[in-house]
Design a protein that fits this description.
Radius of gyration: 20 Å
Largest sheet: 10 strands, antiparallel
Number of helices: 2
Shape: elongated
Structural class: mainly beta
Number of domains: 2
Helix content: under 10%
Strand order of the largest sheet: 4-1-6-7-8-10-11-14-15-16
Order of helices and strands: EEEEHEEHEEEEEEEEEE
């Protein structure tokens, strides 16, 4: 769920005859609230018309682990892997797009900003994801090429640096979109990392990553 701060977003639904625009939203409007409240799949698509800013909140879902520093001092097995922050975090999004001939130029940034420690004493790092690049709609298909990356600050356990956090990276993401038949969208993609820098003593490189997204419209 997003709350629009400014800018405009159009909302359309997928019908058998094609997509039909049902609303244009602006500052103060909410996008995606029914999916959050009911848990149902999204029934409409939001498309950026011009530059926009939006905010939302994350829910404390995912898996968190006990304090690894405390377990280490006690000689017990421990790990630094987190699949959630364990807190409700604000997320701020910046979105922009502009048609240039047949190409659409777009840029986006998304920042998750934890404000407090979770119940286990972990203060999650700030995480910023970004992308910028062109896309080319081709009827029922499309191609997009983007520079994309992520920045993550250093997380802390009761003030102690979490050695598994803190980096920034960037790479190239190529994705194609196909509509093989009505109501189904298939998007294969490939990401190739160009650089990666650690903010601590840890070193990590991401290999070539392949993705496949399948979306079913009802």
């Amino acid at each position: 769920m997003f709350v629009l701060v400014d800018g405009k977003v159009t909302v359309s639904v997928h019908l058998r005859a094609g997509e039909e625009r049902v609303a244009t939203l602006g500052a103060g409007d909410i996008v995606g609230e029914m999916s959050l409240l009911t848990g149902a799949r999204r029934s409409a698509k939001a498309m950026l018309v011009c530059g926009a800013r939006a905010t939302r909140l994350t829910l404390p879902l995912g898996s968190t682990v006990p304090d690894p520093f405390k377990l280490g001092l006690e000689g017990l097995p421990h790990e630094h892997i987190q699949f959630g922050t364990g807190t409700v975090d604000p997320v701020v999004s910046l979105l922009w797009s502009k048609p240039v001939g047949k190409v659409v130029l777009s840029a986006a940034a998304d920042a998750q900003i934890p404000l407090m420690e979770n119940s286990r004493g972990f203060k999650a790092p700030v995480s910023v994801r970004w992308s910028v690049g062109p896309s080319l709609p081709l009827g029922t298909t499309g191609l997009s090429l983007a520079l994309a990356g992520q920045y993550q600050s250093i997380g802390r356990w009761r003030g102690e640096t979490d050695e598994g956090t803190g980096f920034h990276n960037g790479g190239v993401f190529l994705r194609a979109t196909f509509l093989p038949w009505k109501g189904l969208r298939v998007s294969p993609g490939i990401y190739r990392e160009i650089y990666s820098r650690s903010l601590s003593d840890e070193a990590f490189r991401q290999g070539t990553t392949y993705s496949l997204t399948i979306t079913r419209f009802f």
